[in-house]
Amino acid sequence: MLDQKRILVTGGAGFIGSHLCKRLVDAGHDVLCVDNFYTGRRQNLYELLSNPRFELARHDVCFSLYVEVDEIYNLACPASPIHYQFDPVQTTKTSVHGAINMLGLAKRIKAKILQASTSEVYGDPIVHPQTEEYWGNVNPIGPRSCYDEGKRCAETLFFDYRRQHNLGIKVARIFNTYGPRMHPHDGRGVSNFIVQALQNQNITIYGDGSQTRSFCYVDDLVEGLIRLMGTPDHVTGPINLGNPNEFTIKQLATSVIELTNSSSQIEYKPLPTDDPKQRQPDIQKAVELLDWNPTVQLREGLKQTITYFDRLLRDEHSPAA
Ligand code: NAD
Ligand code: UDP
Ligand code: UDP
Prior knowledge:
Elements: E1 6-10, H1 15-26, E2 30-35, E3 54-58, E4 71-74, H2 81-86, H3 88-109, E5 112-118, H4 145-165, E6 169-174, E7 177-178, H5 189-198, E8 203-206, E9 212-214, E10 216-217, H6 218-229, E11 239-241, E12 246-248, H7 249-260, E13 266-269, H8 284-290, H9 298-317
Parallel strand pairs: 1-2, 1-4, 2-3, 4-5, 5-6, 6-11, 7-10, 8-13
Antiparallel strand pairs: 9-12
Helix pairs in contact: 1-6, 3-4, 5-7, 5-9, 7-9
The structure holds nicotinamide-adenine-dinucleotide and uridine-5'-diphosphate (2 copies).
């Protein structure tokens, strides 16, 4: 096949990474996935494990990695607040040491490298919607800082390796993404609400539910990442990738209850520290530079995600599980 590449995906056993690996293998590339299984699972890669174009290695990106590839997608990092706050020092190490090692690798083998950054670099934003030019409003010493500041430092490293070593870098700032293979216990709004609704348990809204998020379906996001990797060398980002349709958390809860036909009631709980009030990407850059636009709207994406969690819960509770 023309243009077949060897591609490294760190964090490839996770939610987004597993979809990315699948897309890249399906496109005919050789994919090496490295993951330390901190939040990722082999089951996420079930379909790929027997594919000769796919290789899985247990490895922690905080340590050096010597492989030969053409492109690197650096996704390794716990992404949900519960997971990244469980061992915050490790979270910062993964972002920072992981970035240094993957950039060192990219430098040695002259590979293109893409960083999975995050809308969290904008913190609790006072500019709305968030454009890439906005520098953010981030608390450097709070419970979310290990993630936010770790990702900000990783961006700094990417741009310094670009300036100092002329590396081919791409930085994507990913906004809330959801879909099948999300971790059922990651504590996120979408996964919590669906699992609660399917079990007819109370839906836990933190705060009054008026805070907003913009939810991007995973297939759209993966398409954006692949397009960004394919851009000419001068396109480095950062580029926002997300769905600009904004919903309140209360609207999300109501949609989930309706789509699952659940008898769940809403229960209000305290808002976590530093929980951003509003978040919506300005995706003009992605539209212009990548010719990219999300195509899956929230109700459709939720249906797919509900089907996934429904199966997962049945499997977990089946006597054979
Ligand atoms: P995830 O937790 O499902 O995936 C992260 C993967 O990284 C897991 O497989 C985990 O085991 C692995 N990992 C963690 N630490 C590692 C280490 N030290 N060495 C090797 N592997 C390690 O999360 P996700 O939602 O798939 O997120 C993927 C990436 O996208 C992350 O970098 C995250 O910060 C970023 N992102 C995600 C979202 C989102 O809404 N899901 C939003 C913004 C940014
Ligand atoms: N590194 C790696 N694989 C490589 C090359 C480098 O994991 O193929 C790691 C190595 O641990 C190093 C880091 O990347 O510490 C940064 O490499 P760089 O060459 O930028 O810096 P230096 O080696 O001078 O510290
Ligand atoms: N949230 C909620 N109930 C839950 C889980 C999350 O109300 O059971 C809220 C959370 O406080 C936040 C929003 O949903 O305002 C999105 O949270 P998530 O963890 O999914 O993403 P992030 O805060 O990182 O955007």
